[in-house]
């Protein structure tokens, strides 16, 4: 319900100076610990895309949680998008920039050509992770029908890398 969704936002906790001084870390743990809040956020994530996706792609690690709830509520399957080195036979890999250095994500060979993927993650920060996931899905031969996150940190301008993203909350 709408009151559950409003309450969900208040359950996202800000932790100053984590993981380093000057960073205000948003912790979604209290939100996902609350059943009605988790359900309301899941419904809000999928609302614009209902009936438009064949599979949901979740970004390791916290994106997996919402991919799981979306899959259970809609009946689609899950594409787990993993940090490099975890998959036995990655079908594609994409590297992206972090504040210091680079990271790589990989995906398994499970997508059919033209399959419609909804990408989901907990937080849009610089957009590096999500934009790499968009490229990865295309490299796997499928189509990104949308990207959805629980919380967008607007100051970081992640959309400059990702294009349009459906966001449940922003600050
Ligand atoms: C966090 C978050 C997003 C990403 C957002 O994950 O869950 O996936 O960073 O940052 P960006 O927009 O600047 O790329 P993290 O890499 O910390 O991994 P984790 O979920 O495994 O902790
Ligand atoms: N919280 C969780 N994950 C993140 C954050 C944050 O504030 N910034 C970048 N990834």
Tag the structure with descriptive keywords:
33% strand, alpha/beta, globular, binds hypoxanthine, 7-stranded mixed beta sheet, 171 residues, 9 strands, Rossmann fold, single chain, binds 1-O-pyrophosphono-5-O-phosphono-alpha-D-ribofuranose, two-stranded antiparallel sheet
Topology at a glance:
Blueprint: H1 2-10, E1 13-16, E2 24-27, H2 29-32, H3 35-46, E3 55-59, H4 62-74, E4 77-83, E5 92-97, E6 102-107, E7 116-124, H5 128-139, E8 143-152, H6 159-162, E9 166-170
Parallel strand pairs: 3-4, 3-7, 7-8, 8-9
Antiparallel strand pairs: 1-2, 4-6, 5-6
Helix pairs in contact: 1-3, 3-4
The structure holds 1-O-pyrophosphono-5-O-phosphono-alpha-D-ribofuranose and hypoxanthine (HPA).
The site of hypoxanthine has 4 residues, from strand 2.
Overview of this protein structure:
It is built from six helices and nine strands, in the order H-E-E-H-H-E-H-E-E-E-E-H-E-H-E. The chain has 171 residues and is α/β, with parallel strands linked by helices. It has a domain at 52-170: Rossmann fold (3-Layer(aba) Sandwich). Strands 5-6-4-3-7-8-9 form a seven-stranded mixed β-sheet, sandwiched between helices. Strands 1-2 form a two-stranded antiparallel ribbon. Helix 1 crosses helix 3 (35-46) and helix 3 packs across helix 4. The chain binds 1-O-pyrophosphono-5-O-phosphono-alpha-D-ribofuranose and hypoxanthine. 1-O-pyrophosphono-5-O-phosphono-alpha-D-ribofuranose binds next to helix 4, strand 7 and helix 5.
């Amino acid at each position: 319900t709408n009151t559950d969704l409003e309450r969900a936002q208040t359950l996202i906790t800000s932790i100053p100076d984590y993981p380093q001084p000057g960073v205000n870390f948003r912790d979604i743990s209290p939100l996902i610990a609350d059943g009605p809040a988790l359900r309301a956020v899941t419904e809000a994530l999928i609302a614009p895309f209902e009936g438009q996706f064949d599979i949901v792609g979740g970004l390791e690690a916290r994106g997996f949680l919402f991919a799981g709830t979306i899959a259970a509520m809609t009946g689609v399957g899950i594409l787990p998008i993993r940090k490099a080195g975890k998959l036995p036979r990655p079908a594609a890999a994409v590297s992206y920039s972090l504040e210091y250095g680079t990271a790589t994500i990989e995906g398994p060979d499970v997508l059919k050509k033209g399959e419609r993927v909804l990408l989901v993650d907990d937080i849009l920060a610089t957009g590096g992770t999500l934009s790499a996931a968009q490229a990865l899905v295309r490299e796997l031969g499928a189509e990104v029908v949308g990207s959805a996150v629980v919380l967008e940190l607007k100051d970081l301008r992640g959309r400059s890398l990702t294009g349009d993203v459906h966001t449940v909350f922003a600050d």
